[in-house]
Amino acid sequence: MKNKILCIGSRLVETDKAGPEVYDRLCRKKIPAHTDLVEGGIAGLNLLCHLEQAGVVVFVDAVSGFTRPGQMIVLTGQQVQAACPKPVYDHSAGIAYLLAVLPRVCQGSLPEEIFLVGLEGRCDSTTLDRAADASLTMTRKNPVV
């Protein structure tokens, strides 16, 4: 069982590249042995395999309508699902849909905790660094034994 940091988004879309930009920053840091860093891109449901039998899962992704542009917000998995009570079932389904499907298809144990580090709009370098640090902090506070 390992903790996971899943950075999601598309490097080709200006409004969706926050996750990959945080991934790049995390690649330059020391990642604890009990944590896997994954560039999830736009893998969608293909990310489910990273969630089974995981400890703490931290998604890093662009968000819209959660905070002011250029800001970071941290949400629990429950808060993500509550914000999207009727998940969309198309290409733009997002993390809420992934979390809704997870208990239905998971063959192993569910993650102990799930967080979203959301980045609203275009973020400056300082905010992207803060998001990388926050992601690591959440996994360091919850080492898998």
Full CATH superfamily name: HybD-like
**What's the helix count?**
5
How many distinct beta strands? 5
Q: Assign the structural class, choosing from mainly alpha, mainly beta, alpha/beta, alpha+beta, or little secondary structure.
A: alpha/beta
Oligomer: single chain
Supply the number of structural domains. Answer: 1
Tell me, what is the CATH class? Answer: Alpha Beta
Q: Main β-sheet: number of strands, strand sense, barrel status?
A: 5 strands, mixed
The stretches of 5 or more residues where confidence is low (pLDDT under 50) are: none
Find the CATH topology: Rossmann fold
Question: What is the architecture at the second tier of CATH?
Answer: 3-Layer(aba) Sandwich
Average pLDDT taken over every residue: 88
Structure, explained:
Belongs to the peptidase A31 family. InterPro entries: Pept_HybD-like_dom_sf (IPR023430), Peptidase_A31 (IPR000671). Keywords: Aspartyl protease, Hydrolase, Protease. With 145 residues, this protein is of the alpha/beta class. It has helices at residues 18-27, 48-51, 77-83, 94-105, 125-140, and strands at residues 3-8, 35-41, 56-63, 72-76, 113-120. Helix 3 (77-83) crosses helix 4. It is globular.
In short:
The chain has 145 residues and is α/β, with parallel strands linked by helices. The chain is built from five helices and five strands.
Identify the notable features of this structure and list them briefly:
single chain; 145 residues; alpha/beta; Rossmann fold; five-stranded mixed sheet; 5 strands; 34% helix; 23% strand
